[in-house]
Amino acid sequence: PSELVSALDCVEEPENHLHPYLLTTLVELLKQFQTAASDEGTAPTQVFITTHSPYLVDQFDLDEVIVVHKTEGRTGCTRPSDRPHLRELLENREAGLGDLWYSGALRGA
């Protein structure tokens, strides 16, 4: 129900508490909440998930990922989708999004 929808949902490292197969279910549920909100004409819930799991990252599209990093004591954010070579790797199926995360390719500028 719309009265129970929050503006922001935060999930910290769900891979520490859920079986890997349930990570897919969690992401599906979160995406359903966002779709339901837009169908009702309300603003979709913004979701922040912190993770170190390439399996969880694999559940998202490149456009859905923002990487938050700390450099020289400052917090920065990057959108890996802004880097065409990453999109090309994914489109050619040379690597999965989780593979790119695990290799460190999604971090930094």
Task: Provide a descriptive summary of the structure in words.
- It is a single chain.
- The protein is of the alpha+beta class and 109 residues long.
- It is built from four helices and four strands; from the N terminus they run E-H-E-H-E-E-H-H.
- The chain has helices at residues 20-39, 54-57, 84-91, 97-103; strands spanning 8-12, 46-50, 67-71, 74-78.
- A two-stranded parallel ribbon has the order 1-2. A two-stranded antiparallel ribbon has the order 3-4.
- Strand 3 (67-71) and strand 4 (74-78) form a beta hairpin.
- The longest helix has 20 residues, at 20-39.
- The chain starts with 7 loop residues before the first strand and ends in a 6-residue tail after the last helix.
- The mean pLDDT is 86.
Q: What's the tally of helices?
A: 4
| Largest sheet entry | 2 strands, parallel
* Low-pLDDT residue intervals, each spanning 5 or more residues: none
Q: Which sequence of strands runs across the widest sheet?
A: 1-2
Q: What share of residues is helical?
A: 25-40%
The N- to C-terminal Cα distance equals 40 Å
Could you tell me the radius of gyration in angstroms?
Answer: 15 Å
Gross morphology: globular
Averaged pLDDT: 86
Percentage beta strand: 15-25%
Task: Give the strand tally.
Answer: 4
